[in-house]
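#structure-requests
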Amino acid sequence: MGGSKVGSLQAAIPLMRQWARDTAADGSPLTVDWVRLSGYRGSGSRVSRVLDAHQMVTWDRLTYTADILAGATLRVSVRTGSTANPDSTWSAWTPVASGGRVVGDSRYLQYRVDMSSTVPSNTPVFRDIGITNKGRALSPPTETQN
């Protein structure tokens, strides 16, 4: 089974390999619909972008959907603040269970997902997140003509 190099990836991805295989011998371009990464890392974190409520709000509930198998853990934490860039005035990271209350009044919020597993075949899967607040409905902007 011979072949020629069709592409490369220059990135720091420890303990992972990427594979793509061209099965067409007719010279048509290789199209990759998906990539599977092999390798295993026991833990990892993901920090969201800063979420903007566009006004001061009282945060309410956090819900998320995840698949957490035996040997795996998943923890969601939030922090809130009133500046667009997190600084020393923001709250500390606080763990919140799915369906739990997010405590605080602010304009901005950020969440972090920490995942780990002691069983390589049972890594957690974080599917989605929702965070509600008790804000007023934003008034649409008004336009005036001269």
